[in-house]
UniProtKB/TrEMBL annotation:
Ranges for domain GFO/IDH/MocA-like oxidoreductase: 143-279
Phylogenetic classification of the source organism: Bacteria, Pseudomonadati, Planctomycetota, Planctomycetia, Planctomycetales
GO molecular-function term, one example from the UniProt record: nucleotide binding
InterPro entries membership: Gfo/Idh/MocA-like_OxRdtase_N, Gfo/Idh/MocA_oxidrdct_glycsds, GFO_IDH_MocA-like_dom, NAD(P)-bd_dom_sf
Top-level taxon in the UniProt lineage: Bacteria
Official protein name in the record: Predicted dehydrogenase
Length: 380
């Protein structure tokens, strides 16, 4: 007998859609799970728009005030898909009401807010997770399994990029739908919290904690019209950020993110170099993991490209999908996160990254921004 898990979704934008797709797909592809998500209510301020979203995706009801959603007795889990400046208030209220929480990344505007959120969920003892979804792309999970097996040997280097080009146009306004990302009052920071946070979460997961950082940031376009006022206002986010770091395992890290790399839409890549083996991954070819194994016989030593499609169980998550050779995509990372969250409820275990795990990423982001401001190395 399946147990319903009533979802209260806040926000109907990009992430509202990816998560809802996840809730809908899970029962079909993970039928063994005890909990079954029910699309109970969707919430946003604009009644017509949230009703249209609810009708399209199959939510049973709507709310126009997130406080009313949290107050509802028939909601088990709150899913926070709003701009970053609302994460803390919503999460703390949801924890106090005893709701489970699935919160979008970055956890908060900064680490101080994140710490308050961790305390709230830990005091309330409510299950919680943060949607660093790239962990659940099979090729990335596969990389994690290989690294954890110790096959890479001593790790020397970790490097990651997240490159986009969508803000080069100086006429693009800041504030409002989706463009809240260009306003630090809503986003907390620019590419650091939006894009590098993903790279940092994956890096910590794969290669362990980061101890200290030195960073530079740049804001290329200094003023943009704000949609709220119609006036040109100072741009307060970082348009680009690059940083160096030490990991606690002694390896060196190099990270770069920008929204000014003409031609790149969402080029997230990482590479890790160990004494025996290197691995690299590219979001634009997300179902492949590239591997160089020094243990291969001399003449055959080369970079290989593993198509992560083994439904026989060798590749994570793939026994849930199609036959070997056929791949899945970006949206499946969210399906997997929902499935893992439901499984964690059954097992009474945390579903990583928890708020506490995501706080570590937030602390690195804070140190990066502070280092860029002061032009000095910063401990995390
Ligand atoms: N995991 C990822 O890969 C990923 C990708 C994109 C965004 N995100 C994160 O997801 C969150 C949302 O981003 P998005 O791209 O979906 O943004 P979006 O602009 O597409 O959607 C934001 C939604 O929040 C709603 N909203 C704003 N204020 C509200 C309020 N007071 N009450 C109720 N609803 C409100 C808006 O109506 C909108 O539906 C952000 O934290 C962002 O950093 C994560």
């Amino acid at each position: 007998m399946s147990k319903p898990l009533n979802i209260g979704m806040i926000g109907y934008g990009f992430m509202g859609r990816t998560h809802t797709n996840g809730y809908k797909r899970v029962p079909d592809f993970f039928p063994e799970l005890k909990y079954k998500p029910v699309l109970k209510a969707a919430c946003a301020r604009d009644k017509e728009k949230i009703q249209a979203f609810a009708d399209q995706w199959g939510y049973e009801s709507i709310e126009t005030d997130w406080k009313a959603l949290i107050a509802r007795k028939d909601i088990d889990a709150i899913d926070i898909c709003t701009p970053n400046n609302l994460h803390k208030e919503i999460a703390i209220a949801a924890a106090k009401a005893g709701k489970m929480i699935l919160c979008e990344k970055p956890l908060a505007m900064n680490a101080a807010e994140g710490e308050e959120m961790c305390k709230a969920v830990e005091e309330a003892k409510v299950p919680n997770t943060v949607w660093y979804n790239y962990r659940r792309i099979p090729a990335v999970t596969f990389a994690k399994n290989i690294i954890d097996s110790g096959r890479l040997g001593r790790i020397f280097h970790y490097r990651a990029n997240f490159l986009q080009d969508w803000t080069i146009n100086a006429d693009l306004p800041q504030g409002g739908n989706a463009l809240w990302r260009l306003d630090a009052a809503a986003a907390g920071s620019g590419v650091t919290g939006d894009l590098l946070a993903h790279c940092i979460d994956t890096a910590i997961w794969l290669n362990g904690s980061i101890s200290d950082v030195t960073a530079m940031t740049e804001t290329f376009i200094k003023e943009r019209v704000h949609t709220a006022t119609g006036q040109k206002q100072k741009v307060t986010i970082d348009d680009a950020c690059a940083f160096l770091c030490h990991f606690e395992n002694g390896s060196l890290g190099l990270f770069e993110s920008t929204r000014y790399a003409r031609g790149h839409k969402a080029l997230y890549t990482f590479e890790i170099n160990g004494e025996n083996m290197s691995l690299r991954w590219d979001l634009h070819d997300l179902h492949r993991l590239e591997m160089f194994d020094y243990g291969d016989e001399g003449p055959f030593r080369a970079w290989k490209s593993i198509h992560v499609t083994d439904a026989g169980g060798d590749h994570p998550y793939m026994n849930k999908w199609w036959v070997p050779g056929l791949q899945i995509g970006y949206e499946h990372s969210f399906v997997h996160q929902v499935a893992d969250f439901l499984k964690s409820l059954e097992e009474g275990k945390p579903c990583g990254p928890t708020f506490r795990d995501a706080l570590e990423t937030q602390k690195v982001c804070d140190a990066v921004l502070q280092s860029a401001k002061e032009h000095v190395w910063k401990n995390v």
